[in-house]
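Hi again,

Forgot to attach this to my earlier email, sorry! This is the prediction with FE2/S2 (inorganic) cluster bound. I've pasted everything inline since the attachment limit keeps bouncing my files.
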Amino acid sequence: MPKIKFMPSGIEVQARDGEALLDIALANDVSIQHACGGFCACTTCHCEILEGESNLLPPDEDELERLGVLDQRTPRSRLACQSKVKGDVTVRVVNPE
Ligand code: FES
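Structure tokens for the complex follow:
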């Protein structure tokens, strides 16, 4: 089972293969904004992948388009609602609630 560590809280949890970072966070009381409810429409679930980027499925066209309009985008940026895990990941939540 993938292990996911959320920063800055330091909360570390186990997840199922294919589960999205947003769903993992919400199921484990990790604070993260998600204004559109996880439909790739708002970018408030922006996160930075600190470790394990290759343990996420790659972004699809919709996610890349959303990331493209994000002011704070970095090369490690992903949208938590679209990022599905397949291994261990450490992630920084950019917009806690
Ligand atoms: S929750 Fe809106 S884009 Fe992820």
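The beta strands are 3-7, 11-14, 46-51, 77-79, 89-93. Residues 56 and 90 are 11 Å apart (CA to CA).

That should be everything now.

G.
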